[in-house]
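Dear colleague,

As promised, here are the two records you asked about, laid out in our usual form so they can be pasted straight into your sheet.

NAME FIELD: protein one
SEQUENCE, THEN STRUCTURE:
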Amino acid sequence: MTNPSLPAWLPLSVLTWIVVMVVFHGFGYVFEICDRAGLFKSSKVRRSDTLTYAQLLPRALFNQVFVLLPAMVLVQWLGWAFTGTAHLGIWRFIALLAGMAIGHDIVQYVTHRYLLHDPRLMRILGHSVHHTTGASKAISALYMAPADFFLEIVLPYLLPLVVLGGGGGDILFHLLVAGLGAFGGLYEHSGYDFAEPLRRSNFYKSVPWLGAVVETLTTSKAHGQHHTRGMVSFSDGFGSPGLCDTVFATRWDKVKERQPQRTRPQRAQESAPQEHAPQ
């Protein structure tokens, strides 16, 4: 059963995809304007990308049009998602939102850590393409090889949705889940961390518990650390519960940073016999 408020020519999966495109590219360009105009300088904590917005855009569009859209249409055509009751009850609505957050965390952690960061598969699946970015331009969130995009973006979104019953045909539920996911990906790759000024504020010092809550909800540090250090925070990011990273102790603040290794010339110099000055 499809939502009766939608015309027959507009499947709910397609409407949801359109909203994803509007949110992603709308906010993506807002972040780009902020970069160009130098706005919110106190919150811009990463500036490490060499590719321009125009260079990042084609890959993002390709993945959205040729990977995400067909996958969403397919699961609706199969009757696995985007179909059913037109309006979810309030408690089911909330339970499904929580279930989606947890399910997304689990699926993304498994694919990201055990497939995409497996040294034998990282290049084959193309995850190395995404790691050529420094997570400092919002649109780099979808600068990925198609296989990487499917495993890290599409599967963590659609698999929990299907397992939890497809979300019915509730338009608000689907638009909220997809819209928040699109914005979260943009923010954690934008290079902005709006918790940074908060950490230095009197408010943070005077009401530490509330400041800590606000910081947790607004920080993008986890995914920035993933791009910097690699083997940390596989699913812990903006809008994510960080469940698996916490349970398996791979959260960025639970993993000790590796000490920089000394260069070979230094070791060679240290091991070489010392010349003594003439007596």
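NAME FIELD: protein two
SEQUENCE, THEN STRUCTURE:
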Amino acid sequence: MSNERTFIAIKPDGVQRGLIAPILSRFENRGFKLVGIKLVHPTESLLREHYEDLQTKPFFPSLLSYMLSGPVLATVWEGKDAVKQGRAILGATNPLQSAPGTIRGDYAIETGRNVAHGSDSVESANREIGLWFKKEELVDYKPALFGWIYE
């Protein structure tokens, strides 16, 4: 089994709308292992570093304001092809282009309120996990059910 990890954050709109449990259950039901979780009010400096590639975009100030508007649930999931599969579970960045059955397809309408963030590559997942979590905040364990998920 691959121990690829991905960073998934439930954004302030998802937290405020009470979508934490339904979103987490999508990853658990799929068979991914939760190895890190915390509810945080991110700082502006953390968000600027997280979204460093978007700072020159015209929408960046509103993105920053939105992400500072409330708590964010930061999570780390582990499993086979976790980054790509995490993005598939989330759906397209624009919720109107997301298929029904995806998180954004079921719970969002506007890109600026798209409920969750997911790493888009293994490299960005490693970087984002390092920004949001200390190494000692991540737990390593083997769930008893893994024999029923992985060959």
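A couple of things worth noting about protein two: The first helix runs from residue 12 to 16. The two ends are 8 Å apart (CA to CA).

Best,
R.
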